[in-house]
Inverse folding.
């Protein structure tokens, strides 16, 4: 198992042009802990929607790698998204699930991955061929390299400790987050 | 009109809706299949300029559209009235971020409905959308369909709103409209 803050630091070490979507909850704080960036789109709600936001973004920007970083609870709420993504399989989409088997936001109740559900198997069964089941730093570095080099849809389940590091809160104004993201991509003129 | 099957002067109201989507530059169309949208889905899937994305459930499409917009593409969603209920929380995403989106809703449960299980959601579709701050247009007559969808697309993309167009069950059940 890996410390979640160490994990996100490694994933974003050589970020390059990566576009980021984070799921509701701790993964938003994890990404913010590395430093806020206009190319980060944080979901402060819409639970279950992170992977699909990533899909729409990846289809719209086929030449940019899009990484969704979300938690096991958020992924479980939108599990059908893996089926939808398995059908589309954009080459530039990657989904990384920080899996601690618990709902950290709400009192550390056990999630389905704590008992029977294996997210990597779900992703494979949905047609995502390149799946990383990551339990240590070497696996994480391998996935980080794939983010830069691979030319296919990626899914990673990253086993992290069930702890709650101090919260780092990024902006939560949705219009601001949207507008600065689109400006960073040159879609909207600088205001 | 594109896709007319019987000759150049025959237009189907579904083809006119499709033409409105094309004219507005819609790049992604998420859908959960519905018989009322069958022709539109077929047209979207056949268009190389549109990525048609089948969804397992309708709220996926709201999130898809948000991602599309963040990446610089316009999206529309096709669903049945029952699917509107599935979208309620996800619509907080487009509402909070003011992401433009047009949702075309094929109505069930309102006109000579055979299946009573469709009636509760059909009866409440417009109210649910209004509670979610979605602007709602409604089409009852085939000759209004293309124009109404075009107006909804203008409203959505000029002002960053989510706009739904309800295609009434009476309309969907109607025979092909000949211009």
């Amino acid at each position: 198992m890996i410390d979640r803050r160490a994990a996100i630091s490694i994933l974003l070490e050589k970020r390059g042009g990566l576009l980021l979507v984070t799921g509701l909850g701790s993964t938003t704080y994890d990404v913010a802990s590395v430093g806020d960036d206009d190319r980060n789109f944080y979901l402060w709600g819409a639970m279950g929607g992170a992977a699909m936001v990533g899909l729409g973004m990846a289809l719209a920007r086929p030449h940019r790698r899009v990484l969704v970083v979300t938690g096991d609870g958020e992924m479980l709420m939108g599990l059908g998204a893996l089926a939808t993504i398995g059908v589309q399989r954009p080459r530039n989409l990657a989904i990384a699930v920080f899996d601690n088997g618990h709902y950290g936001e709400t009192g550390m109740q056990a999630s389905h991955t704590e008992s029977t559900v294996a997210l990597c198997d779900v992703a494979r069964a949905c047609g995502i061929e390149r799946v990383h089941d990551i339990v240590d730093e070497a696996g994480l570095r391998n996935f980080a390299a794939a983010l830069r080099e691979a030319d296919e849809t990626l899914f990673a389940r990253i086993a992290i400790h069930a702890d709650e590091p101090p919260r780092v809160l990024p902006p939560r104004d949705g219009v601001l987050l949207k507008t600065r993201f689109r400006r960073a991509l040159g879609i909207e003129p600088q205001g | 009109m594109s896709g007319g099957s019987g000759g150049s002067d025959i237009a189907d109201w579904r083809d006119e809706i499709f033409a409105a989507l094309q004219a507005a530059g819609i790049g992604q169309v998420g859908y959960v299949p519905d018989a009322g949208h069958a022709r539109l889905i077929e047209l979207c899937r056949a268009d190389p300029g549109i990525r048609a994305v089948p969804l397992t459930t309708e709220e996926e499409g709201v999130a898809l559209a948000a991602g599309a917009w963040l990446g610089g593409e316009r999206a529309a969603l096709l669903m049945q009235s029952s699917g509107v209920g599935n979208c309620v929380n996800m619509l907080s995403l487009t509402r909070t971020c003011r992401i433009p989106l047009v949702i075309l809703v094929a109505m069930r449960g309102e006109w000579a409905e055979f299946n009573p299980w469709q009636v509760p959601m059909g009866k409440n579709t417009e109210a649910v959308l209004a509670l979610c701050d979605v602007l709602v247009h409604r089409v009852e007559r085939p000759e209004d369909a293309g124009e109404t969808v075009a107006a909804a697309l203008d409203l959505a993309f000029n002002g960053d709103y989510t706009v739904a167009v309800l295609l009434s069950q009476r309309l969907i059940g109607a025979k092909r409209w000949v211009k």
